[in-house]
Design a protein that fits this description.
Elements (H helix, E strand, L loop, with lengths): L1 H33 L7 H20 L9 H27 L1
Length: about 100
């Protein structure tokens, strides 16, 4: 059973890393939107393609407030919530299997 516990612990760490990396990508996308970045730059295109599917879904429900887009903040808060829910739960499950 310890192999399954180690596997679940590794998955929990991987999920934690992916959530952290995606938060950084969302933050970079928000910073890019403040400046006049070249839309043909591969980095800018990656940031837009990686974040737009989730941000556009949030924008459907949350209107702009005086030209201020709150969707990145809401998405980051949702990711932090999921991170604090999933990662410790998986870690506890993994430790109980050891």
């Amino acid at each position: 059973m310890f192999i399954l516990g180690n596997f679940i612990l590794a998955v929990a760490k991987l999920i934690n890393f992916v959530f952290d990396a995606y938060i950084i990508i969302i933050f970079a996308r928000a910073v890019i939107s403040w400046v006049n970045a070249d839309p043909y730059n591969p980095i800018v295109r990656f940031l837009i393609q990686a974040t737009e599917p989730l941000l556009s879904r949030i924008r459907r429900f949350i209107p702009l407030l005086g030209g201020l887009d709150l969707s990145p903040i809401i998405l980051i808060l949702a990711i932090i919530f999921l991170q604090n829910l999933l990662v410790p739960t998986l870690q506890q499950i993994a430790l109980s299997l050891r």
